[in-house]
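#onboarding

Welcome to the new folks! Below is a worked example of what a typical request in this channel looks like: someone posts a single protein sequence, and someone else replies with the predicted structure as tokens. Don't worry about understanding the tokens yet, we'll cover that in week two.

Example request:
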Amino acid sequence: MLAQEQYAFREVLTRKGILFCYSGYLTEDILTGIGEAIQKKLEMEQASRQTSKSLFAVFVEQVQNIIRYSAERETQNNGDDTVNELSFGVLSVGHHGGRYFVSCCNLVRTDDTARLKTSLEHIQSLDRGALISLYKQTLKNGRPEGSKGAGVGFIDIARHATQGFAFDFMKIDDTHTYFCLEAYV
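Example response:
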């Protein structure tokens, strides 16, 4: 039964064009290891340099979003003013319909979904020139309140997602919503 169940799961991944799938806690070290595997796979598929570069940039931004913002995390206070954190998310990278994609999903606070949706819809509406302008302006304005980075992650994903991106939310309970973002190169 175990082999049948796992083989059926493998077949679903294959049908969807998934080249790489990960579900679990993510760290910067895992990001590096997965990134290397993806780059090697793209080399083996002889993907263009620009496609590889864009896909890798999208991959890094998406995984960093999980690491920084997933509402599903484990924290350990070491007692010496240091804290260990692990953030949970789901990542898949694939090739389907003539394009590559990176899909990342994780829990977010339900209170953040309206802001995320507004921001992502705005970014989706912009052309390349407007995205570059917004990127520069956001960097110039400094770190947004509540951001753990420069605030340009979604903009950067849109800049590199040469064939656009899609996103979706599914409310889990009053405090958590499942957030998915899939970017296409």
